[in-house]
Structure formats: structure tokens, C-alpha cells
Design goal:
Blueprint: E1 2-11, H1 15-33, E2 36-42, H2 47-53, H3 61-65, E3 70-75, H4 83-97, E4 102-108, E5 126-132, E6 136-145, E7 153-159, H5 162-179, E8 183-187, H6 195-207, E9 215-219, H7 220-229, E10 236-239, H8 241-254, E11 262-266, E12 274-278, H9 295-307, H10 311-327, H11 341-351
């Protein structure tokens, strides 16, 4: 039996509600398969913890998390705690300390999901975004000078190291090569004359090592247009932290909404635990009402199984999600239904093979 230790940070708002359903699916899928089991340890970190203790996580939180095989995160953010604190003092610390430099965001239109564009189909909305997750525009480098004075200046510095840029591109090329798909780089080299020119040059260099992978390169504004007008041209996509953050939300809209948006923060070397999460946010306005859509949280569970090498279980979970969608009988209000969060989770469990 392959036993995996999972750190659970349910977090804020609807986080605990959707994570509970994800855990339910994890446990059922493991029992049905018989090759893997889980040990869960729950941590109370998040905005409520901050309001009580003045910090988003325990002082030795990173040391505690090092002992786990993976982290399952619900959501971060709540009124009363500034967004830059809730993000930088928990989520981004984990990503950076554990070198989770690969962010995987599947943009896949499932049967039963509503697409806002008339020409959107399951065949042409099927892409994987590989977002650089450790530096770039979210490196946290900069300064705030002459604060409060007329001469006030703020500097936000994008950090693009050769190591960081090469490793995310090699990872993307390896994925494209394995899946026999094209790879598209998205940048803004015409305007960002240092960072994105460097990005484009490194992409060209690395592409020489993978002659079998068909490549494309788009400016981010053109890419945003093409995602709407011609989404089928994108298969595997590699892009920077900021551009990936924005464009994957465009992709989420194409694929049925944020309630279906899953994400994985991966340390490919497995030196540290990786982290899996729905990316819909904490939605405090609907917290506690049991109307939050748990399918994104369950989809991130599918990603976790993939990461552990049980791709067949991950695919089984994804098929169960799709079956819930096509049945159309047990869906939360955001998908046009009237089911409760726990009822959707129960239905996914029932449909697991």
C-alpha cells in the first residue's frame, strides 16, 4: 500500500466546504483502487488565524509542512485582512519556500459545461497552461520611495533569471513532447524590452533541443484575442507568472467558469511537497451557505493523483466530474442547478468506478 501524507489547509470562506468534498472523493477513489491511501493532517491557517494571532500561519509552518507528500489548499482571503497579506504571508510563501515553480492550469471544456462562445467545443478548448510560478512579476522585488510625498515613486521589478526561465521552458517542452502536442510561448517582447526579449530568446534557444515539438510565440494581447476567436490553436502553453495568472482566468471562463478551475503548484524534483488547489478564491459572500461549487476542488484532487503516478485514478475522477455535468441533475447554482455543495460531492463519489 502506497500511503501518502497530505497537509490540509482548508483556509477561508468556501475553502472548508469544497475541501471536505475533495477529501471525500480522495478517500473513496483510494478505497476503490486499493493501491494508495491517505493520512490527512489539518492546519487552521488562514485569515481567521491571522485575526487571532497576527499571522497567516505558524512561525514554524514551513518546517511542519516539509514532512508531507502534498498540500491540499482550499482558499485564502477574507474581508478584514488585506489581500496582499493573505496572499504573500501564506500562499506565496509556500510556493516560494517549496520551489513550486511549475503552475499547471488545465483549460478543458467538459461535456455538460456551458461555454460563452458559440464556436467553443470540447475539441477546440483543450489546453494546458504551464505558468512560471516562482519569480517574474510576482517576485516581490521593488521599492516604495518618498511615501506620502509629492515625489512618491513605486518600483515593482520583474525578476527573470536564466535558471528560472530555462527550467519552466524545459518542463513545458517535455510535457509537449510526451503528449505529442504543440507548445506556444506567450510574452510581450515588443514593449518589455528586457524581461520579455530575454524570455523570447531563451524560448528559441530551448526549442533547438526539441526539434520534434512544433512551436509558436504570441504577444499576450494577441493571445488573449486568439483564445476567444480561435482557442483550438493552443495546446500546451508556457508563459510568465503575471500573464499566466490573467490568461488562465480567460481560459476558466471558456471552460465553464471559475467553479471548474483547478490548479497545481508543482515542485517537479519532489524535493518539497507540491500543492493542489481550486483557484476560484474564497467567495466570502456565499461562505457557509453550502452552495459553492466543489468540482474545481475535486478536479485538483484528480491532478494530485496524476502527480503521484496514478493517472488512471485521476482520469476516473475527471470522468465522474464530467458525468455529473452531463446528467445536469446535481449541480450548484453557478451551473444552473439547486444542489448543495455536499450533494455534488456525494454524486461524484457515487459515479466513481
Amino acid at each position: 500500500m502506497n500511503i501518502k501524507k497530505i497537509a490540509v489547509i482548508a483556509g477561508d470562506g468556501i475553502g472548508p466546504e469544497v475541501v471536505a468534498e475533495g477529501i471525500k472523493v480522495m478517500e473513496k477513489a483510494a478505497v476503490l483502487d486499493g493501491r494508495i491511501s491517505f493520512e490527512f493532517t489539518h492546519f487552521p491557517w488562514g485569515c481567521e488565524y491571522y485575526l487571532e494571532h497576527g499571522k497567516m500561519m505558524a512561525d514554524d509552518g514551513i518546517e511542519q509542512l516539509k514532512a508531507f507528500d502534498a498540500i491540499y489548499l482550499g482558499a485564502v482571503g477574507y474581508p478584514g485582512v488585506p489581500d496582499h497579506i493573505s496572499l504573500w504571508d501564506l500562499l506565496l510563501i509556500i510556493r516560494k519556500e517549496f520551489d513550486q515553480y511549475v503552475n499547471l492550469r488545465p483549460i478543458q471544456l467538459l461535456d455538460g459545461a456551458t461555454c460563452p462562445i458559440t464556436h467553443g467545443t470540447k475539441e477546440n478548448i483543450d489546453m494546458l497552461f504551464i505558468r512560471e510560478n516562482s519569480e517574474g512579476e510576482y517576485a516581490g522585488a521593488g521599492d516604495w520611495l518618498f511615501k506620502g510625498k509629492q515625489e512618491e515613486v513605486v518600483l515593482q521589478t520583474g525578476v527573470f533569471s536564466r535558471k528560472g526561465t530555462e527550467r519552466i521552458m524545459r518542463h513545458a517542452f517535455e510535457v509537449a513532447k510526451k503528449e505529442k502536442k504543440s507548445l506556444t510561448s506567450i510574452s510581450k517582447g515588443n514593449a518589455l524590452n528586457y524581461s520579455m526579449v530575454f524570455w523570447d530568446e531563451v524560448f528559441e534557444e530551448i526549442s533547438q533541443e526539441y526539434p520534434e515539438v512544433e512551436t509558436y510565440s504570441y504577444l499576450v494581447d494577441a493571445a488573449a484575442m486568439h483564445m476567444i476567436m480561435d482557442p483550438g490553436r493552443f495546446e500546451v502553453v508556457v508563459t510568465s507568472n503575471l500573464f499566466g495568472d490573467i490568461l488562465t482566468d480567460v481560459g476558466a471562463a471558456l471552460a465553464g467558469g471559475m467553479g471548474l478551475a483547478a490548479g497545481a503548484n508543482i515542485n517537479p524534483e519532489r524535493t518539497y511537497p507540491s500543492m493542489f488547489e481550486p483557484v476560484h478564491g474564497s467567495a466570502p459572500d456565499i461562505a457557509g451557505k453550502q452552495i459553492a461549487n466543489p468540482l474545481a476542488a475535486i478536479w485538483s484532487v484528480s491532478q494530485m493523483f496524476d502527480f503521484f503516478g496514478f493517472e488512471d485514478i485521476g482520469e476516473n475522477i475527471l470522468q465522474a466530474i464530467e458525468k455529473v455535468m452531463t446528467e445536469g441533475e446535481v449541480l450548484t447554482p453557478d451551473l444552473g442547478g439547486n444542489a448543495k455543495t455536499n450533494e455534488v460531492g456525494e454524486r461524484v463519489v457515487q459515479l466513481l468506478k
